[in-house]
Amino acid sequence: QVQLVESGGGLVQAGGSLRLSCVASGGTFSSYAMGWFRQAPGKEREFVTWISWSGITTYYADSVKGRFTISRDNAKNTMYLQMNSLKPEDTAVYYCARSPSRFGGTNWYEYDGWGQGTQVTVSS
Question: Is pLDDT at 9 greater than 90 in this prediction?
Fold first, then answer.
């Protein structure tokens, strides 16, 4: 069973940047797509982005397109989320997730493994 551990969250001012990491263990990381979701207080978990097993294909929510970049290093079993030009509305707990397929999806139920989350807070 895959285990996912996120890190890199924190408090940043609007316009700033953060880089999240997600380290996977217990599975074949390079065979599956990975994704990032986020959940703000009182709101449902929201899709952010996914990356294919090879890293060649990516997909972003409109709300983060052009500001966030997803990447992965299969040799290190690690996925990243570079977040630039952060806005207060980006404040949420960010979760990494593993897809059972080579390509990801935009719905939480399309993923079968989840990390514990890392808090990102953007102050105005």
Answer: yes
